[in-house]
Write a structure and sequence with these properties.
Helix Hairpins; alpha+beta; 19 strands; 2 domains; RNA-binding; BirA Bifunctional Protein, domain 2
Length: 424
RNA sequence: GGAGAAAUGGCAGAGUGGUCGAUUGCGGCGGUCUUGAAAACCGUUGUUCGGGCGACUGAACCGGGGGUUCGAAUCCCUCUUUCUCCGCCA
């Protein structure tokens, strides 16, 4: 959520910048400013009455000590009208505060000035690409046929056990999953990230902190009996480690990496292009999260982009990095790089990572702050995260791009992890 | 799941209705002393929202929410969490 200060001081900038995201903020901003004024008026009034009440209570206290019973009773009577007034004021204050909060969280994060305007993925900017596009045999198979041929991932079994979108990985398929997870975690560790194994169910506060709640409720599986949500990404529990935390500036940036399964209901998003591993309800992902100083958060973003890119290079996959245009960016992001790998048999680019700087947007919800050495004041941190990486589409690309008449060849870097060179 | 105990500032730990935002110790920060350091001594040390150009000043916060009262860290209700004992269990 944007800070109220930003709106007070630069409301026109906010409106202008949100146009890049194709969001007309005029009405909300005006409403927020109006509510903010009313809220402050009410606070001044309510605080004054409360101060008087506090004072009178003290007076009554000392009168009782002196044994002036009649004066005490008289004072008590006078106080009740004031209490009514105070009750009304503070109720109004609470109402206005709540409405202000509700309006404030409707505003998306401002895109960074470097973000291009645009409406669709067509308008995204390709930053760079790498790797070589493979030349496949004419009879090359898409991954959904390959997994059947080698019997390594079983969708029907998943349907039997759970439902569509919950595949069962078998034999070398399961082994490949474990290999990728370990490889990604190890690489994260080498890059200075602390490994985290977080809970995969989170409470409402956590869902709010990273921005899934209240709006994207329908995208998460909800365990109603305990009011917990299954995480759609490790970003949620790992970033929430820093909810209500004040860090030392010297400790920034904080780097964490974690593997979790991820659960997404994907309500209404089924259709073309979601065959096989392209879209699932449950999938595995390794996520990197940084909490950064505002002055250096874009250096952190660059560092994360380089890290994700290095993974794709090591896996020998053809990839491209795109910077999302305003219209394609998420509600919470200030700048996002998507990573796509080329899936040769499908002849499509598949998104395998989304790496973003949220600046202070999440931190404001999380109340994640830092303090400069010796300073009294606290400042909101910047939060960032990125997939490093999401497994299913990596697996799809590995299978399709590396297929040979003898089987699917594993990239060299994975062999120590898989224990085999070929799926055949 | 059953029975009991508890939750206080960075940590430890007082405080059972009235100048308590909270004694004290440790830690942190600043200073005196010292060639330097340690020790000792002195001072300082939470968060949030407001008002004021400023000096300064108001309100809220003792796990969360509600209640009683002129007044609540302190009493009542409720939720959550932790600990001990019993049961169950990977």
């Amino acid at each position: 959520m944007l800070t109220i200060n930003l709106l007070r001081e630069q409301s026109s900038t906010v409106i202008d910048r949100l146009r890049i995201k194709n969001f007309d903020a005029t009405d909300i901003v005006n409403h927020v400013l109006d509510l903010d004024r009313r809220r402050r008026e009410l606070q001044v009034e309510s605080d004054a009455v409360q101060a008087e009440l506090n004072n009178l209570s003290k007076v009554i206290g000392s009168m009782m000590k002196e044994g002036r019973k009649e004066d005490t009773e008289a004072a008590k009577k006078g106080i009740s009208i004031m209490k009514e007034k105070q009750k009304l004021l503070s109720e109004n204050f609470d109402m206005v505060s709540e409405e202000l909060q509700k309006e404030l969280i409707r505003l998306p994060n401002l895109p960074h000035p470097a973000v291009a305007p645009g409406k669709t993925p067509e308008d995204n900017v390709i930053v760079r690409s790498g790797g070589r596009l493979p030349e496949l045999q004419p009879d090359a198979l898409p991954h959904w046929d390959l997994i059947k041929k080698y019997d390594i991932i079983d969708f029907d079994l998943g349907i039997k056990i759970t439902g569509a979108g919950f595949p069962v990985y078998k034999g070398k398929g399961a082994r490949l999953q474990r290999a990728l997870i370990n490889f990604f975690l190890d690489e994260g560790g080498k890059a200075g990230y602390r490994e985290i194994e977080p809970p995969i169910l989170v409470n409402e506060d956590s869902g709010f902190g990273t921005g899934q709640l209240p709006d994207k409720e329908g995208q998460m599986y909800h365990v109603g009996i305990d009011n917990l949500y299954m995480i759609p990404t490790a970003e949620v529990p790992i970033t929430n480690i820093y909810r209500d935390v004040i860090l030392d500036a010297a400790d920034l940036p904080v780097r964490n990496v974690g593997y979790t399964p991820c659960f997404r209901r994907e309500a209404g998003s089924w259709g073309a292009h979601v065959r096989g591993l392209n879209r699932l309800h449950q999938f595995d992902k390794v996520e990197i999260v940084q909490i950064a100083h505002p002055d250096t958060s874009y250096e952190s973003l660059e560092e994360m982009v380089k890290h994700v890119e290095s993974l794709l290079v090591k896996l020998e996959l053809p990839y491209r990095i795109v910077r999302l245009c305003g219209g394609d960016m998420s509600f919470t992001s200030a700048m996002t790089y998507d990573f796509e790998v080329y899936s040769a048999a499908q002849q499509r680019w598949l998104e395998v990572s989304s790496t973003s700087n949220f600046e202070a947007f999440q931190a404001n919800r999380l109340k994640c702050r830092f303090r400069e050495k010796g300073a009294k004041q606290t400042t909101l941190c910047h939060t960032l995260n990125g997939s490093a990486l999401a497994l299913p589409r990596i697996v799809a690309a590995l299978l399709e791009n590396n297929q040979t008449p003898q089987g699917v060849k594993m990239p060299a870097v994975l062999v120590p992890y898989t224990g085999f060179e070929m799926i055949s």
